[in-house]
Amino acid sequence: MKKTYTCISLLLLLFPLITMADNAKSEKIETVTINNKLPDSLLFVQSQRSLPADLLGVKRAIDTIDTAEKFSKIVLYDDHTWEMVDIGRPVINEDIIYDDFDTLSIHSYKHLTLNDLPDEIHICLQDSLHPAYVPITGKINSKYRYRRTREHKGTDIDLERGDPIIAPFDGVVRVSESSRNTGGYGHLIVLRHNNGLETYYGHLSQRNVNPGDIVKAGEVIGLGGNSGRSTGPHLHFEVRYMGKPFDPERIFNFTDGYVRDSIITIKKHYFSIYSHYGQTDEESKAASGRLYHKIRSGDTLGAIAIKYGTTVTKICQMNSISRNTTLRIGRQLRVR
Q1: Which residue ranges form the domains of the chain, and what is each CATH number?
Q2: pLDDT tens across 263-305, in order?
Q3: Does a cis peptide bond (omega within 30 degrees of 0) precede residue 248?
Q4: What is the distance between the alpha carbons of residues 294 and 314, in angstroms, rounded to a whole number?
Q5: Do the Cβ atoms of 204 and 165 come closer than 8 Å?
Q6: Are 241 and 197 in contact (CB under 8 A)?
Q7: 3-class DSSP state of 17
Q8: Which of 44, 103, 274, 319 is the most buried (most CB within 10 A)?
Q9: Residues 6+ positions from 235 with CB-CB distance below 8 Å
Q10: What is the pTM of this model?
């Protein structure tokens, strides 16, 4: 075995689980089992007496060492022995992962329209063998909404610069780009997942992965930051299916840090910027059917009404304005 590995220097401590025996006269010896799923824990000790582990001859895992294969670790023990541990390489569904897999374009599936998608899509988020994680837990600064004069197609979660960002599901890195190539996203990572979803991570201060890398759910892929078009440190997080974004809060509770369910049924009207988590199905459908007009130089209420086959009175009622309201360039007017 080549000893060219870089030491993580993560000291793994053993915490004995101590309980009182039902029968004071009954003495039980500690039993040791090895759990090969890093990094939760390597060694568990179960005991019904508070005897020191070193008196029982139990060897301790004291360190881990990275290998050239990131899904394998070397475990070092205090008796000068070592063991290779497989932490589980994700199985990749190549038919899903590599469909329209463009590492140079931020958005994929540009040729598809909403009409190309089914009315409902059932997505598995997690099961007993494949856990899911929230990318970061924190206060929501900005939701999936129409914000000022533009669509905000993700959720902004507050963080401190350098906070770790983790992959929610197994997958492959499709995009990992610096600020100069992503516009307002800043340092950006896009992951393609086995379940057909893509997740976006914007405004990072550091990217730990490269295009084509396989990532495991729970793996740190980068660090939070303030790069790109940003007014303060936060994670801009998007979820897309076939290139179409929908409200990430339909999947994640960012404030309390959990995945809402094991399966999500995505409906076509969810892809509207006006369809949000918390709406009833009827409210979401109604919101997605709305039509808005962005005011441009020279627009008048009369001209807008004619363009959309409606009346000035109806436009005023839907937007709570009067015929004399000044039309600000960039403002959205509901016209249907």
Answers
A1: 17-86 (no CATH), 94-288 (2.70.70.10), 292-334 (3.10.350.10)
A2: 999 999 999 999 999 999 999 988 888 878 888 898 999 998 8
A3: no
A4: 17
A5: yes
A6: yes
A7: strand
A8: 274
A9: 135, 136, 138, 156, 157, 159, 165, 201, 202, 203, 204, 224
A10: 0.73
